[in-house]
Amino acid sequence: xxxxxxFFLSDKNKKKNEKEVKQEYKRKRQEExxxxxxxxxxxEEKKPFDKKTYRLKKYSKKYKLEQWEEQRKxxxxxxxxxxxxxxxxxxxxxxxxxxxxxxxxxxxxxxYVRHPDLVEKEVPIKKKDSFQKAKEQYNKMKQEKLQQRKExxxxxxxxxQKILEYKKKKQDRFKKLSKKNKKGQPVMTGxxxxxxxxxxxxx
Length: 203
Description:
Protein name: Thyroid transcription factor 1-associated protein 26 homolog
Organism: Galleria mellonella
Shape: elongated
Low-confidence stretches: 103-110
Largest sheet: none
Radius of gyration: 47 Å
InterPro entries: Fyv7/TAP26
Region (Disordered): 1-53, 83-117, 142-161, 170-189
Order of helices and strands: HHHHHH
Pfam family, one: rRNA_processing
Number of strands: 0
């Protein structure tokens, strides 16, 4: 029989086992990494380019108008809620609890009853939604701005009219003062008229 060096053999086997374990571990890690990477790649895959939707968004006036209307609605609502938040009169309202609407037993319930014909004729009041309220507020603000603009234009017209009158008056005065006869001497009639006007205005 051949002699075996059991000590060295066992050590070699141990090393082999450790290497195999390490390799197996590395392989599993690599597989897991590849698997995860593949999933991410699948998620990150680009969608095919849709030329029709692209052209619609870029060139369609209808699409742009719809987008603009949507943004306008959002802006109006945002401004409306902001105004409500900043309005000091809103703090006085207290919401009722579900028990508060109940009638006390001491009160005369059913004493005054409305005629059934009148009840039928009554039209239920429709509550305005937030968009309608915002729209009304926007229209009100628009009307106020138009009114202010008209007033400004009116004031501007009046001012221009006064300036024109003043310039005309000044021109007439200059003509009267600058009149000369054939010899180059000043004509006194115009000057005398101006003096007369001045005296009459001062009285």
